[in-house]
Design a protein that fits this description.
alpha+beta; Ubiquitin-like (UB roll); five-stranded mixed sheet
Amino acid sequence: MAVIVRIPTPLRRLTKNLAEVEVGGDNIESVIENLEENYTGIKERICDEEGNIRRFVNIYLNDEDIRFLDGKATAVKDGDEISVIPAIAGG
């Protein structure tokens, strides 16, 4: 299965400046693993040392926050769109 992953500007240097990439996977976790296989270093920017999605990174599957679905275990299907959105803070 192939899904489209939208890459935020701060991570695009890891994807050769591509704003969208296509990767396979059955769930969010496997999509992240496949991203890492194709774009080394991207997983450590999305996940912490235990493999959990970092608190300041939001992931949306077809505009739904995966925190309100099944988290990393959220199933994906062919043609789904995933957005990786880093939280932005300011003052």
